[in-house]
Amino acid sequence: MAFMRYVGQGHEIPVPLPARPLTHADVAAVRARYDTEYTKFYDRPVPGSDVEIMSYAVVVATVVDDDGTSLAGEVVGSDAAAPATRMVRDTTTGEVGAWSVYDRIALTPGARLAGPAIIAEEETSTLVGPEWSATVNSLGYIELTRQST
Fold first, then answer.
1. Residue 142: beta bridge partners?
2. What is the rounded average pLDDT of the residues 80-84?
3. I want to staple 109 with a disulfide (CB 3.0 to 4.6 A). Which of 25, 54, 75, 130 is the partner?
4. What is the distance between the alpha carbons of residues 133 and 32, in angstroms, rounded to a whole number?
5. How many CA atoms lie less than 13 Å away from 22 in the CB half-sphere?
6. What Rg, from alpha-carbon coordinates, does the chain have?
7. 99 versus 80: which is more confidently predicted?
8. With left for phi above 0 and alpha for psi between -120 and 50, is residue 132 left, alpha or beta?
9. Whether 76 contacts 21, CB under 8 Å
10. What distance in Å separates the CA atoms of residue 66 and residue 56, rounded to the nearest whole number?
11. 10 — alpha (psi -120 to 50), left (phi > 0) or beta?
12. What is the structure's pLDDT at 60?
């Protein structure tokens, strides 16, 4: 998928690309697809305007065994140990309490933790509220689950 726009526009639109290596010969076809997608949003393309690709999105999948399990491997869950705590005001209740702070890079697949917690990274943090839990799946993604009340 390419996110494309006319040069200078402030909004991109998604344009499907063929699932194969692209060559210079594909330029005209990709531009034609852009014109088609642009027309869906804005009724007509703008002839003679240059188009640019701002970003791409790629979907990657793994092979699944016949029994339905992933080849990524089985992950054994374990409770993560919080190295620190921080006083945090819960924006839902207004209460201030100690929240566990976890280093994201130290959370390996299978790690589990219960809120309230902060999973800290260099660029961002994930807040796990008091009624939530987090698990790192086999791909390394954080899965948040709200506990039933």
1. 136
2. 75
3. 75
4. 47
5. 14
6. 23
7. 99
8. beta
9. no
10. 32
11. alpha
12. 77
Strands 132-136 and 111-114: antiparallel
Q: Residue for token digits 């219960």?
A: 114
Contacts of 128 (CB under 8 A, 6+ apart): 113, 114, 115, 116, 117, 118, 119, 134, 144
Strands 84-89 and 96-103: antiparallel
DSSP strands (E only) in 2-95: 2-6, 13-15, 51-56, 78-79, 84-89
Q: Which two tokens stand for residue 145?
A: 């689950």
CA 39 from centre of chain = 28
Question: Which tokens belong to 138?
Answer: 């086999």
- Measure the CA–CA gap between 106 and 78, rounded to whole angstroms: 13
Q: Tokens standing for 137? A: 């799946």
